[in-house]
Design a protein that fits this description.
103 residues, mainly beta, two-stranded parallel ribbon, 2 helices, 49% strand
């Protein structure tokens, strides 16, 4: 499960998910992140595909970073590197996130 966060520029996933999925990071490529707990460095990777409820896109950059104090079923924030590829609608009354492609 991802946390929808339009204030985050990318997608962050936990180290444990990277290990379970057998993903490789991009060698020595790291990014500096400004977090609530200070600035950190985290490895980068590229996912072949990210699919959220049937809305998918390919070649999505991610940051490998464990968020502090989140439930174990939370993968990380789903940010703008994914969301910018869609027209995003949030139906608060029904609790639905609608991702549309095209014009």
């Amino acid at each position: 499960m991802f946390i929808l966060d339009t204030g985050v520029s990318g997608i962050s996933i936990s180290t444990s998910l990277v290990v379970r999925a057998g993903l490789a990071t991009s060698g020595d490529a790291v990014i500096r992140l400004a977090t609530a707990n200070g600035t950190i460095q985290a490895p980068l990777a590229v996912l072949d595909e990210v699919d959220v409820g049937g809305a998918g896109t390919r070649h999505v950059p991610i940051v490998v970073h464990d968020l502090p104090r989140v439930p174990s079923n939370v993968t990380g924030p789903l940010g703008m590197s994914f969301l910018k590829r869609f027209r995003v609608k949030l139906d608060v009354s029904s609790g639905l996130l609608i991702l549309e492609t095209g014009n």
